[in-house]
Amino acid sequence: ARSLLTALAAVVALTGTIDLTPSAKGATQEVRADLKAKVPLIGGTIEKAAAPAILAGIDAVAEMAKERLHG
Question: 30 near 52, Cβ under 8 Å?
């Protein structure tokens, strides 16, 4: 699995920020990111396919943090 992730990291790059700000219900998470796949002709297709999984991972981490904070 590690070699697959290394290969994907060479092809797909995600850069951005995740900001948490106080809100009436606790906190608001704002994600700003740029996903780029460095593959000629099919890079856009790879980006569109990868984006939902990346967002789901970010949401899962936020949910785990929320559960940990609220016991």
Answer: no
pLDDT score of 43: 92
Asked whether the beta carbons of 19 and 30 are under 8 A apart, the reply is yes
Q: What are the tens digits of pLDDT across the range 21-52?
A: 898 988 888 888 888 999 899 999 999 998 89
H or E stretch covering 36? strand 26-37
**Residues whose CB falls within 8 Å of the CB of residue 62, separated by 6 or more in sequence, listed in order:** 29
| Tokens (6 digits) for 57 | 């991972």
Give pTM, 2 decimals. Answer: 0.66
Cα distance between residue 43 and residue 32, in whole Å: 20
- pLDDT tens digits along 50-62: 889 988 988 898 8
Q: Count CA atoms within 13 Å of residue 25 on its CB side.
A: 3
